[in-house]
Amino acid sequence: MPVIAPMPAARPARIPNQRDGSEETTAAGTTVDHLTETYRTHYRSLLGLAALLLDDTASCEDVVQEAFIRVHSARKRVRDPEKTLAYLRQTVVNLSRSALRRRILGLKLLSKPMPDMASAEEGAYDQLERDSLIKAMKGLQRRQREVLVLRYFADMTEAQVAETLGISLGSVKAYGSRGIAALRVAMEAPA
């Protein structure tokens, strides 16, 4: 198994001082301690920022932690330690946007759910009931069958049925009630 030696600590860059020609030492990027302290101090405000953009607490916490990890890995690019919080905030906003985009894309790609399907037994039972109803309807008088079909299957009012068949409203009511009574007898009779 290979042994991995730790990386030597980077020396701070030396920049010549413009005034007197001497060199001064500056830190290259934000220190880990400063970043960690900024994160601890502003964690709740960063979480609140993410909560304004996202809807669930778990996602907000994930976004804030991911922002810390990303800024930590790129801390050398944050030259001014005073801007660490601004980098964290911007990273939280960007990660929240990405999370929302992924959700929207996921919703678009989800297939639509299948409608509730009846079991095979229910389908067979429904078919038997339909067959027995059709058989019973064929046993009715022609006018009774016409009135029931127009009234209940075509969803017409009694007045519309009367107008369609050219009979009186009283006749529609009489044919309808006699037809339903005959259907009850036919459907209850053993096959």
TrEMBL record:
GO biological process, alphabetically ordered: DNA-templated transcription initiation
Superkingdom, natural source: Bacteria
Entry annotated with the keyword Transcription regulation: yes
Domain RNA polymerase sigma-70 region, residue spans: 39-103
Signal peptide extent: none
Residues covered by the RNA polymerase sigma factor 70 region 4 type domain: 131-183
Stretches the record annotates as Disordered: 1-29
InterPro entries named among the record's database cross-references: RNA_pol_sigma-70-like (IPR039425), RNA_pol_sigma-70_dom (IPR014284), RNA_pol_sigma-E_actinobac (IPR014325), RNA_pol_sigma70_r2 (IPR007627), RNA_pol_sigma70_r4_t2 (IPR013249), RNA_pol_sigma_r2 (IPR013325), RNA_pol_sigma_r3/r4-like (IPR013324), WH-like_DNA-bd_sf (IPR036388)
Presence of keyword DNA-binding: yes
GO molecular function, one term: DNA binding
Ranges of compositional bias, category Low complexity: 1-16
Keywords on record: DNA-binding, Sigma factor, Transcription, Transcription regulation
PANTHER family referenced in this protein's UniProt entry, alphabetically: ECF RNA POLYMERASE SIGMA FACTOR SIGM (PTHR43133:SF50), RNA POLYMERASE ECF-TYPE SIGMA FACTO (PTHR43133)
NCBIfam families: SigE-fam_strep (TIGR02983), sigma70-ECF (TIGR02937)
Family, as annotated: Belongs to the sigma-70 factor family. ECF subfamily.
Protein name: SigE family RNA polymerase sigma factor
Naturally occurring in which organism (per UniProt): Streptomyces spongiae
Organism lineage string: Bacteria, Bacillati, Actinomycetota, Actinomycetes, Kitasatosporales
